[in-house]
Amino acid sequence: MSRIKRALIVLASVFTVVALVLGGLFLWLWTGSQVSTVGKESFGNELAIPPLAPSRVENDGTRVFDLRMQAGEKEFREGQRTSTWGFNGDYLGPTLRAERGEKVRVRIHNTLGEASTVHWHGMHLPAAMDGGPHQMVPAGGSWSPRWQVDQPAATLWYHPHPHGATEEHVQRGLAGMFLLDDDTSARLTLPKRYGVDDLPVIVQDVKFDGAQFDRGHRVMQSVGFLGDRTMVNGTLSPYREVTDELIRLRLLNASTARTYDFGFSDDRPFALVGTDGGFLERPASLERVQLSPGERAEIVVRMRVGERTVLRSFSQGSYDKYADAFQRRFGGGDDSFDVLELRAADRLRPSSELPSKLRELEIPDGENAVRARHFDLKRSGINGRKMAMDRVDETVTRGTTETWTVRNNNGMPHNFHVHDVQFRVLEVNGHTPPPELRGPKDTVFLPNGTTMKLAMRFDGPADPDTPYMYHCHLLYHEDQGMMGQFVVVEKGQRAGSPAAGTGTPSAEHRH
Ligand SMILES: [Cu+2]
Q1: How far is the CA of 166 from the centre of ligand 1 (A)?
Q2: Do 238 and 286 belong to one domain?
């Protein structure tokens, strides 16, 4: 054999071995990356319902809440004490509730060992009250934002937003619901007894390492943290006994990176009545509703006497829902979870039929848009730029409507959240949006290859120095800088210069 021939054989053998090792490694990662709890949950724990936050009304009519950010411990599993953070308790927070037109103030006290913020996700309010990265609440400090509720009834939520640490702070347990009511929600014959036939459903994925949370990211998980099981309202393997024919579930995806595709184990249809910012025009009958981190959906499901059904998150096995097989597998899109078991009592209270019409939408249709903006989503930054605290990326004029076209061609899933506004989805890849995207939205999921055109109106007030955020709500991406800032100004006014560092809470100085 010639020397060349021998060398070639050795080279070919080495190549084959390397290829086999890499192939084996990939196969191991591929199979190990799929998680399912379907059929494996015991549903042995009664679902906890976050308490309604107490409030008092001051002489001028302001409703005042108190939120204390605190460290604690919670026994998610018997005998295992997990270190946690929470509002007014060990994990998560109470449900705040206010009416349209009401003035509210929230007295926040941060007893944690580090600075954080509290952001009112979905709320229309002045930028200085928004609780973004410019309104840091120092360790041991307090902050009392105030605003007047001026938007339709909706299921909103609150969570920290400190730049670079949002994923960790939410994961430790800082999140809660903020429900808004109005004349329409009072009038409509929908299930509305909180904790009885109107249930908050805060879904998070979680992983344990011994007694503690495992917050690590696995190899190939470019979306961020993905847990191996789910919990609702901080309850693992939860069940809830229900005593009414119609049950309203206020679904909130409070996970840091995971996208769910909710439905029921027996594929029964349900009525979608609301999206992020409130009611749809009319109920839509669906079998699935997909929610990426930060999104909400209000659904109403019909129960029969004595039966059980499971709220499940299904594999998102189609290109439309989650792009290609590779992204789906490593982004959690192939995973499935048994989330919550509903157990109907042997006698059920009759419920009124659902109204056929819910409300007139208050979101703009884009007709009078004065400006079109474009946002290209990349993990390395939006429109090619990483978030900078002292840079205003977009300046919008108070009282105007704009269209924002958001595109994801980044080869991985992202979503897009805009502070202060509820927008209308005009188009998804050039088509009319499906029913679940026809209501008021503040967060939308964009799998790779998606372009969405949104219409939003900026009602102010103007504050050229204090920016609102727009960002990917996959919190790992947001922390890494997939975020930009916009200010609302009066016509002809220029953007100011926001503070470079993490600011002190500006609201604190005003009263
Ligand atoms: Cu992202």
Answers
A1: 14
A2: yes
